[in-house]
């Protein structure tokens, strides 16, 4: 039986120990990092399934730590921070965090948010019921490389969790892929922000504002645009939501 792994990045010993204990009880093999440099080493070498990340660290700002984590792994990242301003939340999400939890918070809420994230499986993973028990190893999945959606220039393969633009694979975060997959699955249809929140986060413990959808989609569109000379497949419908236009020039 293989436990999931987690790195808790927290210089406050009491908070770090509390999070570590919670995740251990939920079935994770947990390592605690007290500095940003230590966290980056642990993440790079261990490739954990989950990182909880404080933004205020004694050596490297947590935003930069998150940015560097995203260069080596697409693991789930939950920012756990005392910075409550909207700009801090948005910056955290912009650099790749999957969720943002403001201190002080209840351990029960953190547990629920972790469980919600793990209901969004990675490639080849089976959806988890919740972060309350040690998971069984994920079964292998046969991926059909021809099972793709999208259009001639942009293709998305759900089984492989792979997106290509003109044949070139695009590196997306888990949240960016899930948002794009939902839009691609509804071509030409305006999808409201709250529907995207329900589809992607799939939990009662969802981001406090649907504005986080705009942040993740802005990152997604920037990656798609840079890969294809400004091509825009995702349209913003003011006051409503977003639409995927397969034939958009």
From TrEMBL:
One Pfam family here: Trans_reg_C
Database matches in PROSITE patterns: OMPR_PHOB, RESPONSE_REGULATORY
Keywords: DNA-binding, Phosphoprotein, Transcription, Transcription regulation, Two-component regulatory system
Chain spans, region Disordered: 125-150
InterPro entries listed in its UniProt record: CheY-like_superfamily, OmpR/PhoB-type_DNA-bd, Sig_transdc_resp-reg_C-effctor, Sig_transdc_resp-reg_receiver, WalR-like, WH-like_DNA-bd_sf
Residues annotated as domain OmpR/PhoB-type: 146-246
Modified residues (4-aspartylphosphate): 54
Residue ranges of DNA binding: 146-246
Composition skew (Low complexity), residue ranges: 126-135
Domain Response regulatory: 5-118
CDD domains reported for this sequence: REC_OmpR, trans_reg_C
Full protein name: Response regulator transcription factor
